[in-house]
Write a structure and sequence with these properties.
Layout lengths: L5 E5 L5 H17 L3 E3 L11 E6 L7 H17 L2 E6 L4 H6 L2 H7 L8 H11 L5 E2 L6 H16 L7 H15 L5 E6 L6 H12 L5 E5 L2 H18 L11 E5 L5 H8 L10 E6 L2 H6 L4 E4 L5 H13 L11 H10 L3 H14 L7 H10 L3 H12 L3 H14 L4 H10 L4 H10 L4 E3 L2 E3 L2 H11 L3 E4 L4 E4 L7 E5 L20 E5 L10 H4 L10 E4 L18 E3 L20 E3 L20 E3 L20 E4 L6 E2 L8 E4 L2 E2 L29 H6 L10 H23 L26 H15 L1 E2 L2
Parallel strand pairs: 1-2, 1-3, 3-4, 4-5, 6-9, 6-10, 7-8, 8-9, 15-16, 16-17, 17-18, 18-19, 19-20, 20-21, 21-23
Antiparallel strand pairs: 11-12, 13-14, 22-25, 23-24
């Protein structure tokens, strides 16, 4: 037997209650936790790793018990032997103060030469926290508390947080279920402690059931051994498999619900009160297993994480943050409560710091970039279970979209040809991704593994200090820090990346962008590119040979662009364009043909001179314009466009052109006979005879009336953008004179109005 699993129980053997009741129950509780018990004081005493001292009212009556107790204390002081004290029928104060019957029996040995040694040992043990049964505590609870304490002392790195937080939650879930066969599901991310919790529940409950079964790594075991062999291993000793019995079954790591159902249906009939516990990384599997309640295992809190990491890294419990190296706090924060990550990183740093002293920081950075095989295996097993769609979505989130708005990411992924609404839900159900405040989050441990899986092979060319991508035909997405690009490198290789869909180029050192301008002049983009994200783009236009037919989004804030292209391009797929704070931008007239465009963001483009005609862009929803500039904008646009100035919505929005079109000329009216004289002239000369109006007179009157009514409509329907005002003041109809519509001033004014109808000047 292994010494680390052995415990010696020291008690008064003359006490029948202890010998026949308490000690057997404690021994059984230890056995359920994998701890062996040595009851005979002479049986391998020195091989035990811990001792339980049970003090009762007659314990100190026996010189034999006192000698046993004294040897235990000596081992504790000399070899770090673990000691747990239990007070049964006496209080800890009786031992500390040596009073009552306990003291009376001890003083019977006062003449012994060992009396002073016993007295000192009792004083020492009285300072150790012990277990004393309270009035409202059952014997079962008392025994379980002792067993937990001893287990945590023997295995300080195991089950941290399980007994204090998680186990009570499972007990509550069981209590809330109706009497019958109860099913509970336990799920969570890889390495979070599902198996540890399930084993703890099994250890605590197994003594109350007639048949018990714990199948660890159920999926792998089922695939290797098959149903028949697995049933024989666990239930071959059943006298009558058809007899209904109270059963406790734990199936750990179930990935196919049908395997679990076949196994459960193959061996025994469950009587009322039976419990089935299923653990899985996939919440959907638990639903298919028809569990009544599910419990999601959360990570360790900061206190628990500190305890686990300090035991793994330093071999002792270091709770005070000021005693831990700064690197340790970084590792704890990086692990984010995941027990597997805390354990592996702690042990790796502990084992390698002796090989490379004072290089712990370098060791940790290497571990983050290239995760240890224990972490790789557990995460990759979940990754391998995903569909191709889910794998692609997971890789994109790991590289580009962690912390991003889930709705925006779903839109981007859908434009990439993926199915995000189903895929993201499955990733959340598999505990690989979480959604917090409508943003996608991924545990750093999972993210590092997924990046390692999805990262293309790269080799570094020392001459150019640029990472040259191998296997370029397979690359779908690139995120490039252009600050590290050598000025002489040729970036035309991008064009040969036929599967490249997503390109993000940024500068971690913005001051270096001008130094890299020469290298970027050779840039050539592939035809299949769908997303172009480039902060601080340093050139005046995009590459002329780039065909943007598949481009869905242009995201180029703070660029040096003056125009998009020199000429017309096919923008049939373009949906969103963001050129915020591109202060040299003059015009974006190419967008007038982007019929699928939904959003235009030109906020902060201070030198923008014109805005494209957007009357054909029926899918356009949002337009954000800069303030304080002279921009020429057509008044005709789709009715549901939200207009913004520097990011702020305009409350008093202009009415769309379609709402009330101006009256069109009725040329037939020109042939009708009607007077050009005003009603007041008729009143002055009631007897006058009006002559028949000529065609010229009728045409001039109709032009005058149409112009007046059109301007009234424009003043009513056209709007003001804050300080940008339509200059209608040039249209002064009072200067029109009857019969003189074709003089120079009239012609200028009518021409001016025609220009206004086609294009409005904001100043």
């Amino acid at each position: 037997m292994e010494a680390r699993n052995m415990v010696k129980i020291s008690f008064d053997r003359s006490d029948e209650t202890l010998r026949c009741s308490l000690v057997p129950h404690i021994s059984a509780a230890f056995g359920r936790k994998g701890i062996s018990v040595l009851n005979d004081k002479h049986d391998e005493f020195c091989e035990s790793v811990a001792s339980v001292l049970i003090f009762s009212k007659n314990y100190v009556s026996s010189k034999e018990s006192l000698d046993d107790f004294l040897n235990t204390i000596r081992r504790r002081n000399d070899k770090g032997h673990l000691v747990t004290t239990v007070f049964y029928g006496v209080s800890i104060s009786n031992l500390q103060e040596l009073k009552g019957n306990f003291a009376k029996r001890f003083f019977e040995h006062r003449t012994s030469y060992q009396a002073s040694q016993w007295h000192n040992a009792l004083a020492e043990i009285g300072n150790i926290p012990g277990h004393e049964q309270s009035n409202n505590q059952s014997d079962c609870e008392f025994v379980e508390k002792i067993a937990r304490d001893v287990y945590e002392k023997i295995f300080p790195k195991e089950r941290i947080g399980v007994y204090s937080r998680m186990l009570p939650d499972i007990e509550n879930l069981l209590c809330k279920q109706q009497w019958g066969v109860k099913r509970i599901g336990i799920w969570g991310m890889p390495g979070i402690g599902k198996t540890t919790l399930a084993q703890a529940v099994f250890d605590q409950m197994s003594g109350d059931y007639e048949v018990t079964c714990f199948v660890q790594n159920f999926h792998e075991t089922f695939q290797e051994k098959g149903l028949r062999r697995l049933l024989q291993e666990h239930f071959n000793d059943l006298t009558d498999p058809k007899l209904q019995q109270r059963v406790l079954v734990v199936l750990d790591d179930v990935r196919n619900h049908l395997d679990a159902e076949f196994f459960l249906a193959g061996f025994v009939s469950f009587s009322l009160g039976s419990v089935i516990i299923v653990t899985s990384r996939d919440e959907q599997v638990l639903c298919q297993c028809q569990v009544n309640r599910t419990y999601k295992v959360e990570g360790l809190n900061k206190h628990e994480a500190l305890k686990l990491f300090s035991w793994c890294a330093f071999g002792r419990d270091v709770r005070e943050k000021n005693l831990l190296p700064e690197l340790s706090m970084k590792v704890i924060e990086y692990a984010n409560g995941n027990p597997l990550a805390l354990r592996v990183y702690g042990e790796e740093i502990s084992s390698k710091k002796n090989e490379k002293p004072n290089q712990e920081e370098e060791i940790f950075l290497k571990l983050k970039q290239d995760p240890p095989h224990q972490i790789m295996e557990v995460v990759k097993s979940s990754y391998d279970e995903l569909s191709d769609n889910e794998k692609n979505i997971l890789v994109y989130i790991a590289f580009f979209f962690t912390g991003k708005n889930v709705d925006c990411v779903s839109e981007l992924l859908q434009d990439l040809g993926l199915f995000p609404h189903v895929g993201i839900d499955r990733l959340v159900g598999n505990s690989l991704v979480t959604i917090s405040e409508n943003r996608l989050e991924m545990h750093t441990m999972i993210q590092s593994v997924v990046k390692n899986i999805g990262r293309s092979q790269i080799s570094e060319d020392p001459k150019t200090s640029f990472k040259c991508f191998l296997g370029t035909k397979d690359i779908e997405a690139i995120s490039l820090d252009a600050s590290n690009v050598h000025p002489n490198v040729n970036l035309s290789s991008f064009r040969s990346m036929y599967n490249l869909r997503y390109l993000k180029i940024f500068y971690s050192k913005p001051e270096s962008e001008n130094n890299r301008k020469k290298a970027l002049e050779s840039l050539s983009l592939p035809y299949g590119l769908r997303f172009l994200h480039w902060e601080h783009y340093p050139l005046q236009s995009l590459p002329q040979d780039f065909d943007p037919s598949n481009l869905v989004e242009i995201d180029m804030p703070h660029s040096q662009l003056q125009t998009l292209w020199g000429g017309t391009k096919n923008l049939k797929m373009l949906k969103r364009i963001n050129l915020r704070h591109s202060q040299k931008l003059l015009e974006v007239n190419e967008l007038s043909e982007a019929l699928n465009l939904e959003k235009i963001d030109l906020c902060g483009c201070k030198n923008l001179q014109s805005f494209p005609v957007i009357r054909k862009l029926q899918k356009l929803r949002v337009v954000d314009l800069p303030g304080g500039t002279g921009i020429k904008i057509s008044p005709e646009f789709p009715s549901n466009v939200e207009w913004k100035i520097e990011g702020s919505s305009i409350d008093d929005q202009r009415k769309p052109l379609k709402s009330e079109p101006p009256p069109e000329p009725q040329f037939l009216n020109l042939l009708k006979e009607r007077s050009f004289l005003s009603s007041q002239e008729r009143l002055k000369e009631p007897d006058m005879v009006e002559s028949t109006p000529t065609f010229k007179d009728m045409f001039c009157e109709n032009v005058f009336e149409i112009s007046r009514r059109s301007i009234e409509w424009a003043q009513t329907n056209l709007f003001e953008f804050g300080r940008f005002k339509i200059p209608l003041q040039n249209m002064d109809l009072r200067k029109f004179e009857e019969g003189s519509c074709f003089n120079a001033s009239c012609s200028e004014k009518i021409t001016c109005f025609c220009i206004l109808e086609d294009e409005i000047q904001f100043t």
